[in-house]
Known about the structure:
Two copies of one chain form a homodimer. The first copy, chain A, has nine helices and no strands. By secondary structure, chain A is an all-alpha fold. In chain A, about 70% of the residues lie in helices and about 0% in strands. At the A-B interface, helix 6, helix 7, helix 8 and helix 9 of A face helix 6, helix 7, helix 8 and helix 9 of B. Chain A binds a DNA duplex (30 and 30 nucleotides) through helix 3.
Amino acid sequence: MARPRTFDEKQVLTAVRDQFWDAGYAATSLEDLMRVSGLGKGSLYAAFGDKRQLFLRALRSYTDDSHDALRKALSEPPRALDALRLLLEAPIDDPTGTRRGCLMANSTCELGNADPEVLAHAHRTYETSTALIGDCVARAQHEGDLPSSADPIALARALLAAQQGLVFMSRTGLDTATLTATAQSLAAQLLPDRTDAR
Amino acid sequence: MARPRTFDEKQVLTAVRDQFWDAGYAATSLEDLMRVSGLGKGSLYAAFGDKRQLFLRALRSYTDDSHDALRKALSEPPRALDALRLLLEAPIDDPTGTRRGCLMANSTCELGNADPEVLAHAHRTYETSTALIGDCVARAQHEGDLPSSADPIALARALLAAQQGLVFMSRTGLDTATLTATAQSLAAQLLPDRTDAR
DNA sequence: GGAGTTCTTGACCGTGCGGTCCACCATAAG
DNA sequence: CTTATGGTGGACCGCACGGTCAAGAACTCC
C-alpha cells in the first residue's frame, strides 16, 4: 500500500539508548540522534515523537532489557546464593565497555527533580528489581543457604542498595581491585557463608 | 581605590549551588543563575568566569561543606559505632528539603562521561570520605565496638557504598518507612551489635 | 572636587538548539 | 502503468542559549 520503513525500530532504539547513555539527556542533541540512528529528523519525529518521548522509549527498552538480564542472571546459577553473590560483583565486569553506570540511575540523577515520569519509572523499575531479587533470596532460603528467618524483600532491598552503591563508586573511577574487594566484603557481610558445602 | 562588590561571594555560591542541585548542570540556564544570585551576567562572568567554572566552584564548595559536616557527624557521638550507624540513616532525614540526592553524585552521573575534571573531583571526594569514615571505624575498633581484625578502610568503603545506594533509592521516591528499614537492615549486617552494653 | 579604578547593568551577538514542513520517493493495490 | 499512501531527507524557522562589551555608577585616594 505504501513505502515500507527502511529501519528497524529496535536497532534505532538501541543506538539512541547508547547515545543517551554516553552523553546524558540534555547533552545529546538531535544531530547526535540523527547520526547514531542514521535517520533524518522527519523519520525520527514521525516514528517516535519529540526528543523526550524518544528518550522515554529508549529508557523503557533499557529497563526491559535489564530486567530480562537480571531474571536470567538470577535463575542461571544452580544455587541461588551464588546468583546473589554474582549480583554484587557484576558491576565490576562492566560488560558495556566504559564505566557509564546504569542508564536508569543516571537519568534519575539528571532528570529526577524535573521529570515526574522519569521518577515514576525509576520507582517502578526498582520495585521490579526488588521483587526479582526477593524471589532469588527466597529460593536461597529454600535451598538452605540463607536463614529463613529473614524477610526476603528486606534483604533484597539491602542487596540492591549495596549494588547501586558499587555501580556508583565504579563510576568515580575507583580501581578494579578495590572495587572487587569492596564487593566481596559486602557480599560476605550481607550473604552468610553456605551452611552446608555440598 | 575602586567600587566595592555589592555581593558576598559565599552567598552567591550557595544560591548557585542550590540551583544546580535542583535542576542539574545542563538544565540550568544563565538566566536561572542570574535570578538566584541577583547578579547581572557581567558580574557573574567577571567574578567566576564562564558557566562551567562557576559550576565547578559551586561543586567544590559543596564537597568542602559536606566533608565538614561529615567530620562533625562522625566525631560528635560519644561512641564511634553510633556515628557509623547514623551515617547510614542520615540519607532518610533529608535535611535539605526535597529528595534531591547528593550534588556530587548527581553531577558525576550527568557529566562523568564528558567532563574528566568532574570525575577526578568525584574520585578525590570519595577518597576523602572513605578516609574520614575509616578513621571513625578505627575509633570504634579502639573502643571495642568493632572487631579489630577487619581493615578499617575496607569497611569504610562498604559503608560508603551502602550509604550511596540508600541515597539513591531515596531519590526514586521510596517511602520513608521502607527506607528506614533498609538502612537499619544494612546497619545491622555491616555493623555488629556492641560487644558490651554500657 | 577631580582622577583613577573597579563593579554593575543590560543591550547585543552569533550559534546551535528542538521542532516543523514539504517536496520527493518507494512501494503496493487496482 | 497509474494512483494512493506512507516514508524520507533536508531546508527552514524561531528561539533561547552562553558569552561579550561598552557605558555608566560607586567608591577611594590625592
